[in-house]
Design goal:
The chain contains 8 helices and 8 strands, in the order αβαβααββαββαααββ. By secondary structure, the chain is α/β, with parallel strands linked by helices. The protein has an 8-stranded mixed beta sheet, with helices on both faces.
């Protein structure tokens, strides 16, 4: 069934032609990545690739929004099923393995939603120059950081954040997380994607402290 009016209220914000040309990759479908995938499916991304080797455990239910019926399933498969329920026209490819530097094929937009700095570094070094937009979401309890790369300057800035001494974001997202913080982080990541689709400048580095109600945007100039 074709739902021609599904995007009618967002067309001035998310150009249908640009969405149709997008092939998005989400690496990691835990707390943040699952929400990113669901939002991308809902807004109408044409092609979506999900990469994660993990399975759904009981500790994932509250913080990551998985269903009780998903317990024991691969996260990529559970997330892909729900994405298809949100948008039956979407093309989804699931990769049930770890991201690999040279062998993993990706789309033209990549969302990094992983737990460690080392993994982020591996992904970025592998895809830099291969993707048009790279967005990284980091979350520790109620502190969120979203970084976007779409040119040389923002790429150099991002590289400067890839060191373990950044203790606020070096820890695992799964150690202390909530579904509401994950949703907010995902929303900011998809918002940067929406700006890029409209050929607007993206924000290279955003930090939000939900508990303190503080937000800061770092420039790359």
């Amino acid at each position: 069934m074709i739902h021609s009016d599904r995007d009618v209220r967002q067309r001035s914000i998310l150009p249908p032609e640009a969405l149709a040309e997008t092939s998005a990759t989400v690496v990691g479908v835990g707390a943040v990545g699952r929400q990113v995938a669901l939002q991308l499916a809902a807004i109408g991304v044409a092609r979506l690739q999900l990469i994660d080797f993990d399975t759904v455990e009981e500790v994932n239910l509250a913080a990551q929004g998985y269903l009780e019926s998903d317990l024991g399933r691969l996260k990529v498969e559970a997330t892909a099923d729900l994405c298809c329920q949100l948008n039956s026209d979407i093309e989804i490819v699931v990769d049930k393995s770890r991201f690999r530097r040279m062998s993993t094929q990706v789309g033209n937009v990549l969302f990094a939603c992983v737990d460690s700095i080392d993994t982020r570094k591996l992904i970025f070094e592998s895809v830099r120059g291969r993707v048009k937009l790279y967005v990284d979401g980091r979350m520790s309890a109620e502190v969120i950081r979203v970084l976007a790369v779409n040119d040389q300057v923002s790429g150099d800035h991002y590289t400067s954040t890839l060191f373990p001494a950044a203790e606020a974001f070096a820890g695992s997202c799964t150690a202390r997380s909530t579904i509401f913080a994950a949703n907010i982080c995902a929303g900011f990541m998809v918002s940067q994607f929406a700006r890029w689709l409209r050929r607007m400048p993206v924000d290279a580095d955003i930090t939000l402290n939900l508990l303190a109600s503080e937000m800061s945007i770092a420039t790359t100039a």
